[in-house]
């Protein structure tokens, strides 16, 4: 079966094609540090040792980029010790461990961060009805955010993780730069797709310089908004190819401003977003969404829309899912 085939790429090899994608648990303590509840959660989810890679839920890189209460923080060095314990659990359970790093931008509110959110443009976030009105970032602030992503990636590596994933999906800050719905800037960070991914390319360059040539960098891209005037397929493919050229190792495909609210009754429901990217890049592509059975994973791979399949909600709901759905296929 294809799902059990090894996949080798430049900086990382996958023992099979099954990924545990990032899913928020809201189990961090009030400082965003790793709690016993988080350690127990990941131990329980990965104990069957069959995920090739586990991508940890989004960690905020800056208190202003905190999406919700009890989100995990990677905003300063005090987070490293807890993350080391988490990395060890996942790696001891036979999986690569990757941390997703994120800034919520306008997809948060004053109740969470204590002040007005920031965004590419002063436009209320269409992906979050509870979001507060944001203020527009200055060029200087954009550069500071790039550096905070870079510092966070260095912490991920220091904590012993096998890779880092930059979050540019689900209506968060980098996705807000990518989408024409939320990026109305008239400077070098707005306008055409080349300008709208400028912040991404600058972050990738800075991260690569700090973590080294051999350290895996994933990027999760919101490859479509499912809204009028949103990101086009052509621009999504352009961005994906630019990220590959900039030295991203793995692309993780998901929704943009629509998050995952489109018709999600079928397995691999974002395949129409991943297929054109999968066909145009040479690096591995992850697709997540709607997987309910082990056979769903195999079917998605055979559709030739991705290289790796994320199994999220099924595992979130049932820690025995791998035991029941994947082990019988071995």
Structural class: alpha/beta
What is the strand arrangement across the widest sheet?
3-4-6-9-10-11-12-13
The shape is globular
Strand content: 15-25%
- Extended strand count: 13
Topology:
Elements: E1 7-8, E2 13-14, E3 18-20, H1 36-46, E4 53-60, E5 72-73, H2 80-92, E6 96-102, H3 110-113, E7 118-119, E8 135-136, H4 139-158, E9 163-168, H5 173-178, H6 193-196, H7 198-211, E10 217-222, H8 233-245, E11 250-254, H9 271-278, E12 285-288, H10 294-302, E13 308-310, H11 313-317, H12 321-325
Helix pairs in contact: 1-2, 4-7
Characterization of the model:
Helix 1 (36-46) packs parallel to helix 2 and helix 4 runs parallel beside helix 7 (198-211). This protein is globular. The longest helix is centred in the middle third of the chain and has 20 residues, at 139-158. It has 330 residues and is an alpha/beta fold. It is built from twelve helices and 13 strands. It has helices spanning 36-46, 80-92, 110-113, 139-158, 173-178, 193-196, 198-211, 233-245, 271-278, 294-302, 313-317, 321-325, and strands spanning 7-8, 13-14, 18-20, 53-60, 72-73, 96-102, 118-119, 135-136, 163-168, 217-222, 250-254, 285-288, 308-310. Helix 8 (233-245) links the parallel strand 10 (217-222) and strand 11. An eight-stranded parallel barrel has the order 3-4-6-9-10-11-12-13, surrounded by six helices. Strands 1-2 form a two-stranded antiparallel sheet.
